[in-house]
Amino acid sequence: MSHNELMRETKKTHIIESSKPVFSRKGYSNVKMKDLIEASAISRGGIYLYFQSVEEVFIEIIARRERKIVDDVEQLMKKDVSFHQLLDAYLKIQADRLKNIHDSFLKASYEYQFTKANADFNRQKANNARLTIQSIILYGQKKGELTPTNPNELVEHILIYIEGLNISLLINTIRESDIDSSLDTLKEVIYNA
């Protein structure tokens, strides 16, 4: 990567990182480009060199978050950890996100999905999560530590369960203090599938 490319990527990352708290605080619909300009302390013309709209910034945040989860899972697989360690690490990522729901990007993400996103975006987002979970289940099978009767059905159950926790927290039907026990229940379901 050339020096110019590195500088460009550094500035783009700065815009992304400084925009996350804005979306967490204001949701999606209430964010204007002006908010992102102020948060990043980059001029209007400067920010438009990287992103043409609030939506572009938002989608890039989602894409980077999903890539990070996939990268974290893949790194653990390369280290040849046990399935139990891999599953625990993945569920810890979920728990940390859920426990910080009021400071997280989750509310803005659902708001975007319900108001702005098209069906392709929603399907792609769900498919990315599905593929990550599927890779974890397949890893457990290859290691001989997991023998589900129906692996595809198990993947769908995990996906739905985690989405259910997300929504339950957002609408206050579950407390943050219940997250660990809920994820422990999910682990029992996975091990007994």
**Assigned CATH architecture:** Orthogonal Bundle
Beta-strand fraction estimate: under 5%
Mean pLDDT: 91
Low-confidence stretches: none
- Oligomeric nature of the chains: single chain
Number of strand elements: 0
Radius of gyration: 19 Å
Could you name the CATH class? Mainly Alpha
Q: Name the helicity range.
A: over 70%
Structural class: mainly alpha
CATH H-level homologous superfamily name: Tetracycline Repressor, domain 2
CATH topology: Tetracycline Repressor, domain 2
Biggest sheet character: none
Shape: globular
User: What count of helical segments does DSSP give?
Assistant: 9
List the helices and strands in order: HHHHHHHHH
Number of domains: 1
Features:
193 residues; mainly alpha; Tetracycline Repressor, domain 2; 9 helices; 76% helix
How would you describe the overall organization of this protein?
This protein is mainly alpha-helical and 193 residues long. It has a single domain, classed as Tetracycline Repressor, domain 2 (Orthogonal Bundle). The chain contains 9 helices and no strands. It is globular and about 55 Å long. The model has no long low-confidence stretch (mean pLDDT 91).
Draw up the topology in text.
Blueprint: H1 3-26, H2 33-40, H3 44-48, H4 54-78, H5 83-99, H6 106-115, H7 119-142, H8 151-170, H9 179-191
Helix pairs in contact: 1-2, 1-4, 4-5, 4-7, 5-7, 5-9, 7-8, 8-9
Task: Give the gist of this structure.
Helices cover 76% and strands 0% of the residues. It is an all-alpha fold. It has one domain (3-191): Tetracycline Repressor, domain 2 (Orthogonal Bundle), CATH 1.10.357.
